[in-house]
Amino acid sequence: MLKFACISPHPPIIIPTIGEIQDLKKVKNTIKALEDLKNIFEKKEIDSLLIISPHAPFDPYFFTLNIKDKFIGGFSNFGDLKTKMSFEGDIDLAKKILLSFKNIPIREINYPLLDHGTLVPLYYLCQNKKPKIIILNYCLLNNQIHFEFGKTLGKIIQNSEKKIGIIASGDLSHRLTPDAPAGFSIKGKEFDQKLIKLLEKKDINGILNMDQDLVEKAGECGYRSIIILLGTLSKIGMDNVNFEKLSYEGPFGVGYLVANFKLLI
Asked: Which tens digit of pLDDT belongs to each residue from 209-230?
């Protein structure tokens, strides 16, 4: 059964062994929100945690499910040669997911290395408790297929006796400021504000039907992760879910949203 759901950004700069002191101060709201989210997470006693990561192995035409008994990772690509993380994979649940999709393309891979889109949320949430994990990536098929994919996930999760959590990992616009990593677009701020407003209203149709030109020009990497999560939540009914924005900021030109979905059942 689903017991925890959230949206998490994944900038390596918020890891204390990577970000400089002055940079960590600029993202203090994000760090504080992730620490608050950890406290919520730990109380749920989660058995298995599914992470939708835009930086996991990707295929444009297939959802990618990474099935492995053990995952390892670190931040050596970002200058931190010491931090190492490892997690057991939930092979049984992952295989149930894989076999449940008949009309939606999904592929299985067996890759042990964790990407930063997975590692950054896990670094904050799983400092004291380490559930088994499942890694998933989206594809480039349309929004409705992503939503239907999430609904099928939701059915599997609700039928499970395990306490399951899901993280929609993703940053919002990468084009908020002139020095942003993907360049500047006036559409960046518009996209972030509109998406957050729609989440607050729990307006799923509004999110699914956002102007795709706006989405593209925003240069985001979390939109599809969120759509899958919303599909999963729809199986318990959005009347049973409260969206809680814990923080939003974009000090480096990238929008970082931390949000909890409070489940009322």
From this structure: 999 999 999 999 999 999 999 9
Phi, psi values for residue 264, rounded to 5°: -95, 0
Tens-digit pLDDT profile for residues 44-55: 999 999 999 999
Structural domains in the chain (count): 1
Domain that holds residue 39: 2-263
Q: Note the pTM of the prediction, 2 decimals.
A: 0.98
Mark 141-177 as b/e (b = at least 16 C-beta within 10 Å): bebebbbbbbbbbbebbeebebbbbbbbbbbbbbbbb
What is the token pair recorded at 157?
A: 């999760």
Location of structure tokens 């039928």? 159
d(CA 183, CA 185): 7
State the CATH number of the domain containing residue 46.
3.40.830.10
